Amino acid sequence: MFTGQLPSEHGVHAYQRDFGVVDRKETFLGKLPKYQALGASANVWAGSSFGFDELFDSFSDVSPDQRFPKGIDVARFGQDTEGTGLSRQLAFLQSAIAHDYPLKSLANGTAVQLDRVFQKLPVPKPFDDGASLLERELLTQIKSSSEPFFGFVNFMDAHGPVHHARGYDRSLHDAPLSWTARTVDLHDRVEAGDEQTLTWYRELYGTAIDYLDRRVVGFVDQIKQATNKPTTVIVTGDHGNDLALTEENHWGHTVSRLTEALLHVPLVVLNAPGEHNMKRTEIVSHLSLPELLIGLADEGIPDISGKTVRAERIGNSGSPGRLESGDVPPEENMMLRALYDENEKYVWNHQGNEAVYRLDPDRPCWETKTPTKVDIEQVEAAFGTNIETAAKQTRSIDSIQIDDGTADRLRELGYLWLCLVYLLYLWMTQIALKLLVAM
């Protein structure tokens, strides 16, 4: 997204998760020296714990444990404090009162306790998973900065484990209020063919996306009100999710795959320069996002269609500890590449396995395997490097140090569970099948 490069080129992937290897000057921001870079993220992997904040002039980490970033981080306080029960609560109260931002610290502690209580009740959570906080944080940065600026927001409300939250449209799903994905082994449910549970998950997942859609629409209006000059907004996603809806029955997003369900994401451009109201349906790539962003900053709309569309993924995006210990099965921990050619997609991995999939532009996220074979030597020419060589070069593991507070947040999202972990931005280059440009 930021570099226009594949993971094997920019160096951030499952085996090297620190964004410190990416120089801001080598991103599209290096071509926009007059722009202030503002950021807010609810994604732990795309946050200060992994050096992502170094790309920005101003950055806010947001999590349910620290809804007010200037207040106490409740998760880290818990890790640093001995004692349990009442003694821990009193210790937190004392620390909050003595803190530079006592009211915000107390609010953080109250929010965490309420969140834990409502997780056990058959009622929606009173808070969302960060969308409202992210809007507040970026708007605060915008109002305290000068224009022009580039703003980045990483919403996580549609990330699993899905659950009921205030503001969700209950008409979009049939999942009981007593049901939550927090207590369900979804891979087991796929194996068992439990369509009832899987349907509840899919519907609640769609409901979370609907909630984000509505939040983003309102957020765009707030940005317009907070800025003096016209501001273009791009809405996209870093990856999708396999929901066992194809013949291969895949679920989740951590295992090394390059399915359409993972690669297919929206790409919407709002308030573009000039008079526009058009829809483009040809395949484009996130590799072209820097070109698009720089063009929009220059008050133009570059044509990013018609380019060779490639994708790459390096390793399993699960727990770093599992990678270091070698606990990830080889078939779940591949380096893969994909190349698009009209309505076909060629996929191959570093062990020489390959497949060709037929695609249908009218059925997003759908694909079916064909008997056609891939000429790996021929398709590799589009990448410039041999996949086996690239796999060897990127598989030297650097031990990743994760502090206890960050680890707790990752567990809440499933990051440090056996198999469930969110894909780091830029681990795999995403494909956007739809490009919308509108006022």
Commentary on this structure:
By secondary structure, this protein is of the alpha+beta class. It has a domain at 7-27 and 229-439. The protein is 31% helix and 17% strand. It has helices spanning 7-10, 74-80, 85-98, 102-119, 131-144, 186-192, 195-226, 260-263, 289-297, 320-325, 376-379, 387-394, 404-412; strands at 36-41, 58-61, 149-154, 233-236, 242-243, 251-252, 264-270, 277-280, 284-285, 310-314, 335-341, 344-349, 354-359, 367-370, 431-438. The strands form four sheets. Strands 4, 7, 8, 9 and 15 form a five-stranded mixed β-sheet that branches. The chain has a five-stranded antiparallel β-sheet with strand order 10-11-12-13-14, with helices on one face. Strands 2-1-3 form a three-stranded parallel β-sheet, covered by helices on one side. It starts with 6 loop residues before the first helix and ends with a strand.
The biggest beta sheet, please?
5 strands, mixed
What is the β-strand count?
15
| Proportion of strand residues | 15-25%
Q: Helical stretch count? A: 13
Radius of gyration: 22 Å
Q: What is the overall shape?
A: globular
> Which structural class is indicated by helix and strand composition?
alpha+beta
Q: Mean of residue pLDDT?
A: 86
End-to-end distance: 23 Å
Sketch the topology as an H/E string, one letter per element: HEEHHHHEHHEEEHEEEHEHEEEEHHHE
What is the helix fraction of residues, given as a range?
25-40%
The low-confidence runs, each spanning 5 or more residues with pLDDT under 50, are: 413-439
